[in-house]
Amino acid sequence: MSSNSATAVDERPLQIPWLSRGIDWLTEHQREVLAAGVAFQLVVLSVMIAQPLTTLLTGDVILLRVAPVDPRDLFRGDYVTLSYEINRPASTASDPAAASWRRFEGQQGRTVYVLLEPEADGKHWRSHGYQFEPPADGKFIRGTIVSGSTFQFGIEQYYVQEGTGAKYEQAVRDRKLSAEVALDHNGSAQIRRLVIE
Fold it and tell me: Same domain for 175 and 190?
């Protein structure tokens, strides 16, 4: 037999019965599949919106003193970047272990709970301890450790009417700016508004 003789090759595509049936079914039901996909995305978006909205509408309302960091984002209009006393651990009578940020070193990404107590004026709230487990009672706010010395709570930015950023900067310099924050039972927070006092 000659070494040049051609070998017959089957050029028909490989048939996988279950795959063919699946493709046929999808082709026949493309409208239903598309509708189900759209409905699924709407459900996911609704869930994402429902949590913050529920907190805003039904959460406990507190006032926190704030200090903006950056008053302007040219691409999104005016906003204030806010910093709070609770963003940095500090020593308190009820939580002397928080005297040093080293307690939180190497804990980036971990959830932290800040216990809150009213200030002497009866309107504003401040921290009186930090812990890694949810408190059994009392007001608290849940955050994430960004570094050993900084926490974030999801309330560090607030968009304001364009052209009003300077007004809020001045209020901070005068120590007259507070954030009205809604807290839910899990410690999630949403800013309701900024208050110039």
Answer: yes
Return the higher-pLDDT residue of 77 and 165.
Answer: 165
pLDDT in tens, 68-83: 665 555 456 677 788 8
64 and 35 in a single domain? The answer is: no
In a domain, 4, yes or no: no
Is 38 a member of any domain? yes
76 versus 124: which is more confidently predicted?
124
Residue range 34-78, pLDDT digits in tens: 888 888 888 888 777 777 777 777 788 899 988 766 555 545 667
Q: Are residues 23 and 112 in the same domain?
A: no
DSSP class per residue in the chain:
--TTPPPP---SPPP-HHHHHHHHHHHHTHHHHHHHHHHHHHHHHHHHHHHHHHHHHHSEEEEEEEEES--EETTTEEEEEEEEGGGS---BTTBGGGGSGGGGTT-TT-EEEEEEEE-TTSSBEEEEEEESS--SSS-EEEEEEEETTEEE-S-SEEE--TT-HHHHHHHHHTT-EEEEEEE-TT--EEEEEEEE-
pLDDT at 107: 85
Check whether residue 181 and residue 89 sit in a common domain.
yes
Domain range spanning residue 150?
60-196
In-domain check, residue 118? yes
